[in-house]
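Section 4.2 – Deliverable D4.2 (structural model, holo form)

The reporting period included a commitment to supply a predicted holo structure for the target in complex with zinc ion. Inputs used:
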Amino acid sequence: MCFVRIFFLLFFLLVSTGSFADPNRFFAASSEDELWSTLHEQFLLSEELVCQFDQAVKQGNTVESLLQGSKEHGLLYARLQAIRELEEELQSELESRLLLSFTIEDSNSGVPGMESWLRSRAEASRKKLGIRGKTFDFSLSRILQFAKNFDQERGFGLESLSAPLVLEEYRQWREGFRRQGGRASGVSRLRNKVNSLAIGIQESWAQGLQLEPSGFNPDLQIFPSSGQNGNITGSGFPMGSWSLTFDDGPGRLTPVVLSNLKTHGLKASFFVLTGQLEKSAEIASFSRQAVQDGHDVYSHSYQHLKIPKLSESEQRHEIEDALQVFESILGFRPDLFRLPYGAGVSNSMVRASLVKSCQVHVFWNVDTLDWQDRDPASIVNRAVAQMKTLGRGVILFHDIHHQSVIASEGLMAYLNAENLKTIRLSEFVESQNGGSKWGCKPAWSKSR
Ligand SMILES: [Zn+2]
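Output (structure tokens):
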């Protein structure tokens, strides 16, 4: 490859991965070794928090009771939100850097696929950092999935598609971890960062978390509003009704979820990223297929940023521009929206931005924690435990993780075996509003 091409490739990658654009990225200044090491810490600390969440659920808690309960309970859910945000940032930082170095190395020597290249690169860092044990391997599963997808898209490496992790090893490790109290060690730096972020998240919730009134109220009207009428959580569903929701797609795994839904005869609601719809015509076709199959498809913003951190014009881009491009690709303008991480649900400016775009927000009341938990069976157990306490609600999955695809299929089987009613979010809104649509026109000012 000639020098000019490499230069343009570098430039394109830097711009497209946002390396020039966003000076607020937490990990922008970290070395690659530091990133691998933080990824490992993130895995351990997330396991600790998931373990605490499971204990709270065992004691009869739900997302809602954690949010509205004691300070310590609120802080636990805020910590989970905080570490998930960090995990996403870390993942995208690693992805953009690895993509860059892989592309350069690959163009020079033609290495055999990103997955094996990535494994050897991470292994070299692990040795240098002196990290021992299986947990480092577990921490790699999501980034390895990214590499597999990359290989698949380039049409090679298919035969090397090994399991992202050996589930049995993970289960055994986790059992031991929990037996010993479920406390992560050697993660104090990340712990401090997560704690300070979580305090900020909890403070923002305290400012005005407008949850839907708990309990079914047939007279409650749903319409774009900064108050309770504009935020569905599932706690106001009729008893025995459940909505399956899938966030962050469409992606390579979405067709598997669609096929599972068909097999089980169920309908779901998808919250998709416009950035994903734009990736390729093939990826967008997965959402088109979802609509054809009778599922609901709504917006989950453009690029999954933390909306409360953005200026008004940036919020407009993430919400309104995302909707307009969504409409140009899928042919309709959706009317329900889910904020990335649910962040901003209690922020008046964010909620006002959603109203300006005629969107009703949808939170959840059953959290599967499928972004961290690699064990599908444990994800199903976590969902079922919360469902038994609640009796109705909105279940949160992400159709971008292997474990989520398997776990959601398990939950579909559970819903049918227990004869539970599954509704799309639009069915809930229609029945609350007596079939009428809210009249609403986007109210953003003309000037930028
Ligand atoms: Zn999301």
